[in-house]
Amino acid sequence: MRLRFSLNGQAMDLADMDGSQSLLSLLRGLGFTGSKEGCGVGECGACTVLLDGLSVDSCLLPAAKAQGRAVRTVEGLAQGESLHPLQEAFLEAGAVQCGYCTPGMLMSATALLERHPRPGDAEITEALEGNLCRCTGYQDIIEAVRLAAAKPERKP
Predict the structure, then answer these.
(1) Domain that holds residue 46
(2) Vertex 104: Cα angle to 98 and 110 (nearest 5)
(3) Which has the closest alpha carbon to 126: 137, 112, 113?
(4) Residue 153, pLDDT score
(5) Same domain, yes or no: 61 and 95
(6) Is pTM beyond 0.90 here?
(7) Residue 156's pLDDT band (cuts 50, 70, 90)
(8) In this structure, are residues 86 and 109 in contact, taking their beta carbons and an 8 Å threshold?
């Protein structure tokens, strides 16, 4: 199949694609390795990307479902050498330890902040529910999202 979609704002046109492969597999094959395969069954959130602005588990999504849509990965957050304010907040709050869950956490939080620029703790917790972290205990991650939401220069 031929697959046409937007990836981090760039038009993609891929011929002879196996549309049954997962979006995660496709992205990693294209060199976008920020999204991780943790569980492979949609339980851990390490593979989270945005599809038309909504967080999805890319390990479960057939690549064909990206047809005509916008996919955004963690690599699409920073602008050149400048980190996204959410990435800066994760560093500032100490929300990164082993880093395996971080890309998925960042993408779920990005989806939240783009929908609700000033979320409360309950909204933050709910938005991160599908993302597992075995290192931080979540408090630093929630604090990082709070910090990013409080930054006046934060742009979706």
Answers:
(1) 3-74
(2) 125
(3) 112
(4) 58
(5) no
(6) yes
(7) very low
(8) yes
